[in-house]
Every structure is written in structure tokens, then in C-alpha cells.
Amino acid sequence: GRGVMRFANGNVYDGEWKAGKREGRGVMRFADGEVYDGEWKAGLPEGRGVYRYADDDVYEGEFKAGTREGRGVYRLANGDVYEGEFKAGKQEGRGVMRYVDGDVYDGEWKAGEREGRG
């Protein structure tokens, strides 16, 4: 079913529930200003969603077990934009980073760093 949960720490979840856990579509507004709007499974972000961070960075893409995993677009508050693969919350695999100064890196990433051929 659907419901709203207000947590003692100030977080608010508005969305679907199953067996007492966040499951399906929902929005979590965190007390620090961060917002996750997307799919949930077993109480964690999983599937497609958008996460807006307190520092104004925005990630739109796939999540697994609460972290960035799969394909996505990460827009940094400074104007840099990464589009590509993520693993364990960091850029990993093939991806393109377009820097605000006009530089572009198109190549492999590992643990959030440029790696190998670009």
C-alpha cells in the first residue's frame, strides 16, 4: 500500500510499502535537504531513480541495494557532467566526463578515477 512515514531524525518517506518496508515507487526527503525519488526494494533505493545531494550534485540512473550501480548521469554542482557506468557508487567501466571548461574524457573508469585508455 501507500503511506507516509515521518522519522524521528527528520527524514520523511512518501510512497509504496510492502511487508513493512519501502517497496515500489517513493520519495525520501532527508533532514539534510537530500532527496531520493525513485524505485525501492526491501527498504533501499533499487532500480531507476533520481538522487539530489545536499551539495546540489544530482544523479539520475540505476541503483542497487541503496547505491549508484549500473548506468547513470551524474551532474555535479560545478557544471561537470559524467554519463556512463557506475559500480559501488563510483564511476566504473565506460563513461564520458564533460568538464565545465570544455575538456572531455571518454574512456575507462575505475573506482571513480580515469583509468586505462581514454
UniProtKB/TrEMBL annotation:
<keyword id="KW-0677">Repeat</keyword>
<dbReference type="GO" id="GO:0005829">
    <property type="term" value="C:cytosol"/>
</dbReference>
<dbReference type="InterPro" id="IPR003409">
    <property type="entry name" value="MORN"/>
</dbReference>
<dbReference type="Pfam" id="PF02493">
    <property type="entry name" value="MORN"/>
</dbReference>
<protein>
    <submittedName>
        <fullName>Uncharacterized protein</fullName>
    </submittedName>
</protein>
